[in-house]
Structures are given as C-alpha cells and as structure tokens.
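Support reply, case 0932

Customer input (verbatim):
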Amino acid sequence: KQWYQRRVAITAGKISTITVALTEAKSLIEHLQADLLTSKTRITKLTEQLEVQNISFTRSKTALDELKNEVATSQNEIRALTEGQSEVMAEVAALPTWPEGSYCILASGTCPPGFTRHSGHIRAFNTYDYSPTYIQPAVFGDSYMRCHGPCGVHTGWDAEFGITSCCK
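Our regenerated output:
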C-alpha cells in the first residue's frame, strides 16, 4: 500500500508537471497565434501596398514609354524640318538678288543685305479737318500715318506720319 501511495504521489506530481507544461504550452500557442495573426495582417497590408506601387510603377512606365515615343517622333520631325530647311535655304540662295541701281523700299523689320535703314517723321501738323475723310490711320511695314493724339478730337495738331525705308 505504501508503495502504491508513493506511486500515486509520483504520478500525481508528474501529472501536475505535465499540466503546468500544458498550460505554459497553451499560453505560448496563444501568443504565437496572436503573432501569426499580426504577421498575416502585416503581410496583407504590405501586399496591398506592393500592388499599389506596382500599379503606380506600371503607370509611370507607360507614361515614360509614351514620352520616349513623343521624343522619338519629335526628333524625326526635327530631322525632317532640318532637311526641309536645307532645301529651302538652297532655293533661297538660288533666287536672284536685288536689281542693280539706287532705290529705296519701305522697311518692315530688318533691311535686306546691302541696304541701309533710314527713318524720318513729321509730328503734330495741322490739317484742313481732323475727320476720317482727311486722316485715315494706316501702317505700311514700319512706316505709319495716324492721328496726333485722339482721332476725331481737334487739338490744333491733327496728324503725324513716319517713314522707315531701306535704301541702297
């Protein structure tokens, strides 16, 4: 009987040790399950972020490819225009030059090679009348004739004009 009681006590001790170990294991498993759930949640969020970045990367790559195509197209257009410009310049070089002699032409921008720019004006002169019948504003390249001050208002000085020419 003593032997039996010792055996029961030893077995009870072992059961108690196993129960404590099982409780600790159960607690550890619960912590591991919580950690696993946290890891799964984090993996899901990272996967979603990666998908968003992949979409953004794909869009950026598409936009970059479109820009590359536009650059290539622009380069081809520039090349074609440069070739066309060379042809036009050759045609311009083949055009006849200005006739010989001395003369002037009205200026509109820079003067042609071999011509000298000249400008003159008359301002604040009186006319018979200051109406549009007598003063009709106009521009001829860089030359002009116009009212001196507001048109249609008699100020005593009604008109002005300026001539800019290129002469050789």
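We compared this against your earlier run and they match. Two observations from our side: The beta strands are 104-106, 116-125, 138-140, 143-147, 159-167. The helical segments are 2-94. Please reopen the case if you see a mismatch on your end.
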